[in-house]
Each structure stands twice: as structure tokens, then as C-alpha cells.
Amino acid sequence: MPNIKSAKKRVKVAAKKNLRNRMVKSAVR
Description:
The protein is mainly α. The protein has one helix and no strands.
């Protein structure tokens, strides 16, 4: 199933975005 690969990729990208968002928010404070 090639769908699982893209799903894992999406999760990784989402995690990266979340981390960057948290960094930016803490930096703004």
C-alpha cells in the first residue's frame, strides 16, 4: 500500500510545522 508512505510523510511534515509554530510563539512572548 503506497498510501501509508504518503501518510507517514504528511505526519512528519505536520510535526515539523508544529515544532516551528511553537518556537515562533515562544519567541514572540
